[in-house]
Amino acid sequence: MSTGVVDAVLPSAELHLHLEGTLEPSTIFELAERNRVRLPYADVDELAARYDFADLQSFLDLYYANMATLRTAQDFADMTDAYLARAAVAGVVHAEVFVDPQAHTARGVALEEVLDGVGSALAAAPSVYGITTGLIPCVLRDRSAADAMTMLDGVLRSGVPVLGLGLDSAEVGNPPSVFRDVFDRAGAEGLHRVAHAGEEGPPAYVWEALDLLGAERIDHGVRSLEDDELVARLVRQRTPLTVCPLSNVRLRVIDDLADHPLPEMIRRGLVVTVNSDDPAYFGGYLDDNMTALRAACDIDDAAAELLARNSVEASFLDGDRKRELL
Ligand code: ES4
Ligand code: ZN
C-alpha cells in the first residue's frame, strides 16, 4: 500500500511506449483540423467515450483509426516531442520508444515522413529534456512476414538511427515464429530485438520470442507466470519483462489493478519494469502507472526503487551510462 506520502518520482527508463499511443484526444482533433482529415466523432468527448475496451483488438481498432490524422514529418515530430515533454515530468531520463511504420505506409504515408519526424524529435531530446532516447520500429504481427521484411529494409536504408526491432499488434493467432527470418536479419544488422509476448497470448509465444526471434526483452509477458519452467528461464537469464499495469487493466488482461501479478513477479525474481504502453488510451503516463500501482498493490519504497533500477538495467544503454544512472 502507498504510505499516503506523495510518491517520489524516481529517475527511470521507459522501455515500452508506443508513440502513436501518446496521441491525446485533443491532439487527434488538432491534427485532424491541420490535415483536413474527417473524424467519425463530433468532438473530444464523443471520442473519449470510446475508450472503454473489451480486449486488445477493440483498442487496436481505435488506435489504428486515429492514426489517419498523422500525415507529415512535422506531425510525427510534434507527437514525439509532446511525449518527451510529458515523460520528463514523469521522471523518465531514458526512453526506448516504439513506432509502427507499417501502419503509416499502408495508408500512403512515406516511411521517410515517419522516421524523419520521429527521429528529429528524439535526436533533440537530450538537449531539450535531458532524456536520452532510442527508436524501436515494430513489426505488425497481423500482417505478413514479407511486409515486415519490406519495412525493415526501408528502415535500414533510411539512415535514421534505430536501436532495435520489436513485434506488436494482435497477438493471438500470430505467433512469433512467423517472423523468424525478419528478426534474424535484424540481428545480423546489429539491431537489438524485443517482442510483445504473453500479453493475451500463451506462454508458448514467450518461448518462441526467446528461442526463435532472439528477443532480449519481453514486452508484457505477464502470462509467463502460468509456466514455471519459463519463469525459471527468465529469472536465470535475467530477461527483463516490460510490464504495463494500467494497460493490462484497460485491455482486461487483468480484472483489477489490486490483483495485478507484478508484486508476485518481483517475488519470483523476475526482472520487471513498469511502463505506460499507450498512455493516452490507458489512463496515464509512467508516473500515473506507478502511483496507481502503489495505491492498489503492495509496492513499498524498496520495491519502487528496485523497479526504477531494473528499468535502467533492462535498457540498451551502454555500461557507462547505466552506471551513471544507477
Ligand atoms: C499495443 Cl497494448 C499493445 N499490444 C500489442 N500491440 C500494441 N500496439 C500498440 N499497443
Ligand atoms: Zn505495447
Give a brief description.
The protein is of the alpha/beta class and 326 residues long. It has helices at residues 25-35, 44-48, 56-66, 73-89, 101-105, 111-129, 145-158, 180-188, 203-211, 228-237, 245-250, 262-267, 279-282, 286-296, 301-314, 319-325; strands at residues 12-14, 92-99, 132-140, 164-168, 192-197, 217-220, 241-243, 272-274. 46% of the residues are buried.
State the total count of DSSP E strands: 8
Shape by Cα distribution: globular
Task: Calculate the mean pLDDT score and round it.
Answer: 96
What is the helix tally? 16
Report the end-to-end length measured between terminal Cα atoms. Answer: 25 Å
> Which structural category fits the helices and strands?
alpha/beta
What order do the strands of the largest sheet run in, or round the barrel if closed?
1-2-3-4-5-6-7-8
Q: Which superfamily, in CATH terms, is the homologous superfamily?
A: Metal-dependent hydrolases
Count of domain modules: 1
Features:
single chain; 326 residues; alpha/beta; 13% strand; binds 6-chloro-9H-purine; binds zinc ion
Question: What layout of secondary structure does this protein have?
Answer:
Elements: E1 12-14, H1 25-35, H2 44-48, H3 56-66, H4 73-89, E2 92-99, H5 101-105, H6 111-129, E3 132-140, H7 145-158, E4 164-168, H8 180-188, E5 192-197, H9 203-211, E6 217-220, H10 228-237, E7 241-243, H11 245-250, H12 262-267, E8 272-274, H13 279-282, H14 286-296, H15 301-314, H16 319-325
Parallel strand pairs: 1-2, 2-3, 3-4, 4-5, 5-6, 6-7, 7-8
The structure holds 6-chloro-9H-purine (ES4) and zinc ion.
6-chloro-9H-purine binds at residues 18, 21, 56, 63, 168-169, 196, 199, 247, 277-278.
